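User: Please fill in residues for this 569-position structure.
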């Protein structure tokens, strides 16, 4: 038995009702009030906008215009930011700066097409490479999982609404707008220690990996202001439930130590309210970086003692003083997730029990577990008893066996949903709440996560990247059965940009190669702009194949398969 009783297994939870009617952890509801839409004065020159999206936007008054740091996740959000900034200054934007790739998708508001190239856009030297990897290889999975994590399948009002997302109010407000991506490529790339004078204001930039490896720590020495993406208003997500490459805490600590060395008088975050006062900033950031180091060090200590990830979750607990500090509460993710990710990042998926090497398949195990319990009626009784004891995690786990063994039974799905909803209401972590409630609603039939509620990638965004970025995604989209009868090849040409490559289909894989003199089995000639529209969901493969804008030669079946894959079919 575990020595800690969690809110998921019978420990009391303080649950309240918020302004949207949401039934949620009272501390999360209280914490969420800070994200009300407002423009916060940091100094006479610097103002921080909170509340129009998950990330903040900061305006620095330059000599001739306004320098804007971060632009939200869509142009609808940046338009709100711009509207509020104009209460302070209605001068034109003289420069954009991206702290990292997450909040650059509203930049078209500030740099309309006719001004592109006239407004400098500053970013980390690795930003485009980071974006390309995220937006091509695992785009579909990340879009679906991000939609779950940020509550896009949940209602805006009622018991299952979100109070906030722990580090900001929301990703999108789908009841008010459908988000439009408007990304402007950076024109000025910077690295660690680079300095620049931008519209009369001195800036210094430092590498500070956070939730991405293209994150910048921005120092305004004349103002004593640090703009950062490493100190959040909630415990940092070493692991995010939507999925991500390993965020090594050792890299994060370097950025936090750099931040402390600056001794800022004002701390402006990508998330949360600005913090003023050198002493308070030092206290908050020190506790924050020490909490992260504690999780890392004690996880490593446990690994060296021979513990598995499951055992480490019980073993590694933040000391109360660190767990309850101003910036370290579990309002976004949970410390247990981060412990598991540190283990996985350092050791991989295998623990110590060799049973893990070849587990009984999930559906088979469910049937056997229900039989072991004495049949479905006995298992159902155990679920109901666990719910009565408020052991919601145990109830959901047992009900999960019933759902797998009897997938057609709505009552068993309802039982599991009751356990998941109770955990979602009890947790202080917004990520956990969104996942629990979304899966509960899916079991009840009121959510469908196979349907993507927003399109993060549009034609304009695709066009900002080299053609090969999204052509490479065909490796993951084309059916491997296409080469089941033997190897074949397709030449793909974008006639408007001079791009050509050969897709070699063999042994179930797709290999991108240069075009040579050998005749391919099929050919596709089209414009890159039409390809971008296919990838961005603004054209269909059926329409494209039947139009004069696409020339198909050779095996039309192969050509159409490539067009379908580009569309994501």
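Assistant: Residues filled in for all 569 positions:
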């Amino acid at each position: 038995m575990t020595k800690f009783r969690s809110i998921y297994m019978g420990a009391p939870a303080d649950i309240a009702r918020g302004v949207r009617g949401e039934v949620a952890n009272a501390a999360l509801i209280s914490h969420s009030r800070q994200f009300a839409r407002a423009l916060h004065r940091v100094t006479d020159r610097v103002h921080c906008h909170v509340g129009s999206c998950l990330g903040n936007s900061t305006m620095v008054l330059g000599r001739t215009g306004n320098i804007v740091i971060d632009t939200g996740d869509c142009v609808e959000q940046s338009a709100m930011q711009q509207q509020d900034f104009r209460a302070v200054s209605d001068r034109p934007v003289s420069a954009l700066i991206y702290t990292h790739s997450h909040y650059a998708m509203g930049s078209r508001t500030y740099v309309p097409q006719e001004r592109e190239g006239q407004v400098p856009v500053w970013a980390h030297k690795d930003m485009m490479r980071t974006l390309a990897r995220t937006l091509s290889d695992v785009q579909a999975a990340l879009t679906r999982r991000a939609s779950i994590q940020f509550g896009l399948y949940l209602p805006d009002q009622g018991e299952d609404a979100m109070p906030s997302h722990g580090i900001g109010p929301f990703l999108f407000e789908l009841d008010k707008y459908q988000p439009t991506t408007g990304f402007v490529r950076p024109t000025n790339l910077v690295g660690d220690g680079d300095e620049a004078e931008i519209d009369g204001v001195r800036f210094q930039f430092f590498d500070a990996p956070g939730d991405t490896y293209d994150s910048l720590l921005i120092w305004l020495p004349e103002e004593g202001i640090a703009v950062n993406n490493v100190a959040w208003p909630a415990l940092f997500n070493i692991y995010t439930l939507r999925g991500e490459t390993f965020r090594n805490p050792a890299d994060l600590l370097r950025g936090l130590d750099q931040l402390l060395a600056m001794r800022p008088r004002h701390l402006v975050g990508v998330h949360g309210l600005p913090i003023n006062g050198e002493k308070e900033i030092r206290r908050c950031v020190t506790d924050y970086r020490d909490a992260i180091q504690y999780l890392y060090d004690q996880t490593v200590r446990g690994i060296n003692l021979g513990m598995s990830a499951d055992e480490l979750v019980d073993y590694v607990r933040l000391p109360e003083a660190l767990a309850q500090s101003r910036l370290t509460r579990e309002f976004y993710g949970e410390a247990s997730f981060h412990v598991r990710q540190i283990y996985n990042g350092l050791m991989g998926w295998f623990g110590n029990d060799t049973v893990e090497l070849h587990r009984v398949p999930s559906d088979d195990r469910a049937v056997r577990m229900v039989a072991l319990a004495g049949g479905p009626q006995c298992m159902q009784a155990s679920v109901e008893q666990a719910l009565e004891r408020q052991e919601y995690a145990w109830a959901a786990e047992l009900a999960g066996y019933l759902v797998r063994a009897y997938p057609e039974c709505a009552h068993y799905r309802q039982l599991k949903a009751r356990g998941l909803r109770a955990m979602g209401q009890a947790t202080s972590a917004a990520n956990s709440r969104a996942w629990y409630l979304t899966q509960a609603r899916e079991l009840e039939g009121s959510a469908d996560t196979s349907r993507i509620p927003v399109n993060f990638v549009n034609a304009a965004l695709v066009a900002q990247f080299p053609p090969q970025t999204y052509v490479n995604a065909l490796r993951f989209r084309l059916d491997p059965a296409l080469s089941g009868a033997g190897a074949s090849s397709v030449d793909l040409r974008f006639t408007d940009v001079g791009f050509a490559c050969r897709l070699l289909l063999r042994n179930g894989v797709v290999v991108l190669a240069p075009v040579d003199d050998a005749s391919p089995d099929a050919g596709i000639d089209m414009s890159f702009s039409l390809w971008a529209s296919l990838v961005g969901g603004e054209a269909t493969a059926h329409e494209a194949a039947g139009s004069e804008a696409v020339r198909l030669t050779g095996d039309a079946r192969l050509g159409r398969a490539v067009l379908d894959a580009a569309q994501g079919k």
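For context: The chain has three domains: 19-347, 359-444, 459-567.
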